[in-house]
Amino acid sequence: MNTIKTAKRLNSFSEYIFSKLGKLVKEVELKSKRKVLNFGPGNPDVAPSKLYIDKFCEFINDKDAHLYPGFGPNNDFANALIAWYKKRFNVTLGKSELFPLLGAKDGVSLLPFALLDENDEVLVPDPGYPAFSDPAKMLGAKPIYYDLTQKTDFKISFTQLKTKISDKTKFIWINFPANPTGQVATLKELRKIVEFAKKHNLIIVYDNAYSEITFDNFIAPSILQIKGAKKICVEIGSFSKTFSFAGFRMGWIVGNSEIIQALAKIKSQMNSGLSTPLQKLGAFALTKTDKKWYREMIVNYQKRRDIIAKHLKKLGLKFSKPKGSLYIWAKIPDKANSSEEFCMKLLKEKQILFTPGTAFGENGERFVRISICVNIDNIEKYF
Question: Which CATH number fits domain 51-287: 3.30.160.20, 3.40.50.1010, 3.40.640.10, 3.90.79.10?
């Protein structure tokens, strides 16, 4: 009998954390006969505006909707994104400086193929989005982790970051508002990051997926607002969070045209582009934003953030309310042995799921991530 031999690279990374947690949830629900209150995935659950959905139906019914879309942005998408960046950030983009993505994760997972060779190094935040690390490992490149800790308020220490750079370092992942910590960065702080990267000849990939999910009057900037940033930066954006289009898989990348064209070449081999109806939907949403719906969405998330925060204190968790993203990053009680044990005990005993902080890096030990995009109508029955 023949033995199936799979690629050795499968041994370089683990199964995606939310795939594993999803299986655990099903097991607990079967055993407890009770639905788990799942604070794990950051799945935007506010229904999209009816205005957008009605338009999407129109676009799907167009006579050419079924055809291949081509490998780049159509004019509607490009012009809408250019106008949105000018209005939102006062950033001027050219058509060679943008590209549609099949969700932000499309860019996150494929950029390493455009920027890294075997044995190259990439700087990755710890804690940080797991997808920043594993694609690099698949290529034989090496993630080098820089610390985001409570000591530095989960922001970058440039003194420490300098020690992580070698002649093999190609680029750095930066993410604010941050997943998982919810920490934000000001324009002044982004300016320091750009200055540091220029000094050390680093490319910056700025994950700005949560730019439009902010609270308490904080407004997230774009790293492209920094003068000269386009020389070394690209920025990734998401329709998933901004417009609740998560399941449609829509995003964008903007910034340095050389990096974008390198990614476009990779993508031409990996997929056939963002569908025409979805490009038209993205263009419509960016230019005809339902402001009333958007304000209600942010109020909804902030209200849930505050309600969930009150209940978390009953479990002895310590945290600051985030000014951005869809997560609360909380420290577990001193008596708990580990973040994973704390989460598994809570899941089995109370049917409440948090994500262990270790899913986001070694510095996540003794922390948990709690998503605020969760139906909390019955929260009192769990806490």
Answer: 3.40.640.10
CA pair distance 197, 123, nearest whole angstrom: 11
Domain ranges of the chain: 8-47+291-381, 51-287
> What sign does the CA torsion over 191, 193, 194, 195 have?
positive
Contact at 8 Å (CB) between 241 and 210? Answer: yes
Q: CA-CA distance, 105 to 100, in Å (whole number)?
A: 12
> Each residue of 83-94: b (16+ CB within 10 Å) or e?
ebbeebbebebe
Token representation of residue 381: 């029955």
- pLDDT tens-place string over residues 303-356: 999 999 999 999 999 999 999 999 999 999 999 999 999 999 999 999 999 999
The amino acid present at 375, given as its one-letter code, is N
- CATH superfamily of the 8-47+291-381 domain: Aspartate Aminotransferase, domain 1 (3.90.1150.10)
Within 10 angstroms of residue 359's Cβ, the number of other Cβ atoms is 22
Distance of CA 125 to the CA centre of its chain: 13
- Measured CA to CA, the distance from residue 73 to residue 287 in angstroms comes to 16
Task: Dig out the tokens for 182 from the structure.
Answer: 């919810």
Task: Provide long-range contacts, Cβ within 8 A and 24+ apart, for 303-308.
Answer: 304/372, 304/373, 304/374, 304/376, 305/215, 305/372, 307/376, 307/379, 308/39, 308/370, 308/372, 308/374, 308/376, 308/379
